Predict the structure.
Amino acid sequence: MHTKSALNTPLLNVKNVSWGIANKSILNNINLQISPGKFVGLIGPNGAGKSSLLRCLYRFNRPTSGQITFNNHDIWQLKSEDYAKQVAVVLQETPSQFNLSVFDVIALGLTPHKSLFSSVTSNDKQKITQAINTVGLEQHSNQSFESLSGGEKQRALIARAIVQQPQLLIMDEPTSHLDVKYQIQVMELAKSIGVTVFASFHDLNLAAAMCDELVVIKNGEITHTGTPTEVLTENMLGDVFGVCAQVNSHPQLSKAGNSIPHITYFYGYE
Amino acid sequence: MVMNNMSAVNTRHSLALCISIAAALFSLFAALSFGAAETSLQDVLNSFLLSNDASFNSRIIYELRMPRTLLAFLAGSGLAIAGLILQTVTRNPLADPYLFGISSGASFGVVLLMAFASISAGFMLSAAALLGSLLAMSLLILIAGRQQSAQVELMLLAGVALSFLFSAFTSLLLYWSDPQAVAAILFWTLGSFARAQWATLWLPLLVITLCTFVMLSFRRQLNAMLLGDESAITLGVRVQRFRILMLVLSSLITAVLVAMCGGIGFVGLMVPHIVRFFISQGTIAGLLVTSLVGGTFMVWVDVLSRSLLKNQELPVGVITAAIGSVFFLSLLFFRKRRV
């Protein structure tokens, strides 16, 4: 009954958002909608404002003008725990030198759901155990978080996001320092948990294969939006990324049966 | 498999908690039999069991050693908790209650009182120390409280600067004071539990119990802070406010303890690190073990201070600093080897 309207109303709506620091404008008049159930990728060259934009979405940066709404509520009007119940975030690097166990880190996903004096119930424990199983860290739950490899850390953080039970998962280049195998693994894991995802990508081919929609940002402005096939064109790659490239079709089709663009870069064209 | 691992972790944590509770109870009891007067464990038992035992030993144990041992335990656990809180919210392994100028503020208050009012003992002294550390704390919060970004760095730098500022004032006052006052001040700054009395024990007991309770209820937020400010925000923690609240809590603990026992360094730095070697600090058990280990450690430091030299007391601060620096150097040594 509500499906149609639910599909039409964006989950997250960014309206005319600008943000800057010390009189320097970083984001200019950003407009963006994320529909429920989509896997949306954010791409752009270094310093384009990808992280700044994502930080505005998870309330680390407060926009200097404009409005961001989540389910039609201004995100700055919501209580911080209430927003954290609906939006989980996986960041690129999460340092911790204080011997938290993997289990403790994953259990942190409960934080916004728990009042100060409540303890972990057996239901919570089951949720945490399930999340650990989903990301395949059964053998490591006991270990210290710091002793995990980069890929395992990201998987643990995704497990934390699963425990948080969000409607939207935001990821800021969660795979950029990982080996290829783990880049694919972590992104497929994020796709498999069945929530709306907005993630920034470093690797354009990975973005093309994973995302339903892509958003391109350059110099703090959004230049292109659309499906990977619409967005990843040779012209766009030349204009925004400054590379000479050819775009073909990947031999595989996406799960939805669409063709996946595949970029081949040419070298020696500076 | 996960269930197995989890129960293994739970068992380890429960085991650590049981051991530290047993060690704490035993230490509190055994420490009562050490001191200048020859007493045995039997005497200690008698003073507990025989309500009308008015013997000399029993009175020493009940009126002198018991409040003193309890104060040592409270001081140790309070400083350990304050250190754990500060290390967690600043994510700085070197943070400890003395890094933020809180004890220098207290020393300044005491020296001011001794130099101008010639009062060198009693309740007024503790009040002056409390006021001095509250002044330092307020200045620190005034500087770092409204800061949005780089709050941790600002807090640490401001704390170190405040600590030097108050030390400078203290030195200036000491320079003008007479030698007797200087000796009294020196003894005070080195720390001692000799001034413990039943009548004043309620204050640290109240403050430390309350702060421990608050810390236990905020344990998830504390853990979230360990993963960085950004991650903590995404988990719904209001980072700036939370950090200031935790700073106030640990300052309160430190201020009360400095006022009652003088400056006792290194415990707040050391104990959380030692406990972290064995168990995760992220659980209720981890936090309680830190507090118990701190208390137990301090009880034995006090025993050492009473019994190392005949007819003389070593300042507690000297012993903790000596043990602390050896510990600290070995920590650095093993860190280097692990990398």
